[in-house]
Design brief:
The complex is a heterodimer of chains A (about 300) and B (about 325). Chain A has about 300 residues and is α/β, with parallel strands linked by helices. Chain A is about 35% helix and about 15% strand. Chain A folds into two domains: about 30 residues, no CATH class; about 220 residues, 2-enoyl-CoA Hydratase, Chain A, domain 1, CATH 3.90.226. Chain A has ten helices and nine strands. In chain A, the strands form two sheets. Chain A has a seven-stranded mixed beta sheet, with helices on both faces. Chain B is built from 14 helices and eight strands. Chain B is globular and about 70 Å long. Chain B folds into two domains: about 50 residues; about 260 residues, Alpha-Beta Complex (2-enoyl-CoA Hydratase, Chain A, domain 1). With about 325 residues, chain B is an alpha/beta fold. In chain B, helix 1 runs antiparallel to helix 2 and helix 3 crosses helix 11. In chain B, strand 5, helix 9 and strand 6 form a beta-alpha-beta unit. In chain B, strands 1, 2, 3, 4, 5, 6, 7 and 8 form an eight-stranded mixed beta sheet that branches. At the A-B interface, helix 5, helix 6, helix 7 and helix 8 of A face helix 7, helix 8, helix 9, helix 10 and helix 11 of B.
């Protein structure tokens, strides 16, 4: 190992963008229905299982591509100090960080891009779950503050796609401070009169949900996404109770009033486009084509009690 | 009977011996004043030595000491005319968060705290200081009330963290914490937070997005408990002392990282050995940082508070 393999190769790979690696497995098994899916079909279907509709995790880059019109650009982000605590558990945090950077060709767990949705400009920040579980340390906080400032500068709404296990423990209390820092980011966007839209993807938990990710003007989630504050295991150990069916899933949050809607990945782009139009265009723009029909998942019906409640 | 921590065992033995000797004297036995004096000096030296170099894990234990002054102790000692306020106006009153109005050095203030309780009954009543969404919603409501009436906000933080429960999740624990952080950041009034014991993660920052953050000498403030961190990163909760070290969660470390503004020294042997002196020292320190803030208008306070948090941990950002 030398500086070429450690530093230069990942950089070059990052610049070229395509790492040209042959996938070790051309077939993926859907974790929900166990159907085998050819990798090209899966990609074409935005990583949604064609047979059962299960939403698998999607990369940050994949999200942005699926959301924005052609011609978007990725924003260069300020580099936060790496490993401020010189943290070491069974491995050095600096090594874990470097591995994640090499694997993903990203500096940290968030990609920020500017572009447009159906011609309406937006700034998008997307979490990469495969980068240390999308955990939020100073780098992620910095990315969100940058995205917010850019949105204000561009007079564009800010959309954040989250996927994060929570705070990055290896940055200790500095990672905790990203909670107020990202809340400030949401204030900057809102004070400029711009929509702040959160799309909660699987999984979003801990300090990320307990900060900017619950402060959207509009709260959207993907079907089946795990969303919560405390981990299921911690809750089970604390209350010594079996967790209810579907606990902390997107549909459960919708039922409990925490979300506005659960939207399928294929309808996300059109949904975001229409929301932004409704929030920002007081009169409809010149009609070009009829708007596509949108289907938001309705709140699940309660299991029993099909009789409508009678007014008192 | 004083509660001794595991690492205080040698001190406990010495103090036990002193007590025993004193009882012999009182019972009319031989005069052992000289002996007692010597032992007392020895115990004090040992206490001084032990507390001068507490490890982060030992500090965690001191921060959780059952006899350590709790949030309501500070409120009772420092805030006159205290009027407790209750409820989130939506679902319930959560006793893990205490809130109210009162006077601090003559100034009307709003007070917030996470209260752990002192005996079994009150611990259960306050849910061991672990708040549910209603607690954070009450905090937010009182911060907004303080803003409307220009009352400075004082908070006393001592919590293992937000309560991890089924109902808490169903009622939006994450959202409640996020809104409470937001309310602190937005408050157009001076806001001084003091970490008096455990500053546990989201449940702590919910009440500590303040202009000035004070921390007691042996308090800890972290994104996760050492036990939680150890069981995730080391896959072994017994590694908690190692995790406590790695997390840099002590007042001294956090002062160096510029995440807290000042450290309040504790009486010899920890706050629990002299609660009255501890609470007086906290009162003086809170006043010394609050007084200059009283001259600032709401917009300035808010702008500076934002700047402060945006700068945190940013040294070296390019």
């Amino acid at each position: 190992m030398n500086w070429i393999t450690d530093w230069a190769l990942p950089k070059i790979k990052g610049l070229i963008g395509t790492s040209r690696e042959v996938p070790d497995n051309l077939w993926h098994k859907c974790p929900a229905c166990e159907q085998m899916i050819f990798h090209r079909d899966l990609e074409r279907n935005l990583h949604v299982c064609p047979s059962c509709g299960h939403h698998m995790r999607l990369s940050a880059q994949g999200r942005i591509k699926a959301t924005l019109d052609e011609g978007w650009s990725r924003i260069e982000l300020p580099k936060a100090p790496a490993d401020p605590l010189r943290f070491r558990d069974q491995r050095r945090y600096s090594e874990r960080l470097k591995d994640a950077q090499t694997k993903t060709a990203m500096d940290d767990a968030v990609v920020v891009a500017q572009g447009a949705i159906e011609g309406r400009k937006v700034v998008v920040a997307a979490f990469e779950f495969s980068f240390l579980g999308g955990s939020m340390g100073a780098g992620v906080g910095e990315a969100l503050v940058t995205a917010a400032k850019l949105a204000v500068l561009q007079d564009a709404p800010l959309i954040v796609f989250t996927a994060s296990g929570g705070a990055r423990m290896q940055e200790g209390t500095i990672s905790l401070m990203q909670m107020p820092r990202t809340v400030i980011a949401t204030r900057l966007v809102k004070e400029a009169g711009l929509p702040f839209i959160v799309v909660l993807c699987d999984p979003t938990t801990g300090g990320v949900t307990a900060s900017f990710a619950m402060l959207g003007d509009i709260q959207i989630a993907e079907p089946g996404a795990l969303i919560g504050f405390a981990g299921a295991r911690v809750i089970e150990q604390t209350v010594r109770e079996k967790l209810p069916e579907g606990f902390q899933r997107a549909e459960y949050l919708l039922e409990h009033g925490i979300l506005d809607m659960v939207v399928k990945r294929h309808e996300m782009r059109a949904t975001l486009g229409r929301l932004i139009s409704l929030l920002r265009e007081k009169l409809p723009p010149e009609p070009a084509e009829p708007a596509p029909e949108l289907v938001a998942l309705p709140a699940p019906e309660p299991a029993e009690a099909t009789e409508p409640a009678k007014p008192a | 009977m004083r509660h001794f921590l595991e690492f205080e065992k040698p001190i406990a033995e010495l103090e036990g011996k002193i007590e025993e000797l004193r009882r012999t004297t009182d019972a009319g036995g031989i005069d052992v004043a000289e002996e007692v004096g010597k032992l007392r000096d020895k115990a004090e030296t040992l206490l001084r030595q032990t507390y001068a170099k507490l490890s982060p894990w030992q500090k965690t234990l001191v921060a959780r000491h059952p006899e350590r002054p709790k949030a309501m102790d500070y409120v009772r000692a420092l805030v006159a005319e205290f009027m407790p306020l209750a409820g989130d106006r939506a679902f319930a009153d959560d006793a893990a968060v205490v809130a109210g109005l009162g006077r601090f050095r003559g100034h009307a203030v709003a007070v917030l705290g996470t209260e752990k309780g002192r005996d079994t009954e009150s611990r259960v009543q306050h849910n061991f200081g672990m708040a549910r969404p209603e607690g954070y919603r009450k905090a937010r409501r009182v911060m907004e009330l303080a803003g409307r009436f220009g009352l400075p906000i004082l908070s006393f933080v001592d919590t293992a963290g937000a309560f991890p429960g089924i109902e808490a999740e169903a009622r939006g624990q994450a959202e409640a914490i996020a809104r409470s952080i937001e309310a602190g950041l937005e408050a157009p009034v001076p806001f001084v937070a003091t970490i008096i014991g455990e500053g546990g993660s989201g449940g702590a920052i919910a009440l500590a997005a303040a202009d000035r953050i004070l921390m007691l000498e042996h308090a800890v403030y972290s994104v996760i408990s050492p036990e939680g961190c150890a069981s995730i990163l080391w896959r072994d909760a017994a590694q908690a002392p190692t995790a406590a070290e790695a997390l840099r969660m002590t007042a001294e470390d956090l002062r160096k990282l510029a995440l807290v503004d000042a450290v309040v020294p504790e009486p010899l042997g920890g706050a629990h050995r002299d609660p009255a002196a501890m609470m007086a020292a906290v009162g003086d320190k809170v006043w010394s940082v609050l007084e200059p803030l009283l001259a600032l208008d709401g917009a300035t306070l808010r702008a500076r508070r934002r700047e402060k948090f945006l700068e945190m941990g940013r040294a070296g950002v390019v």
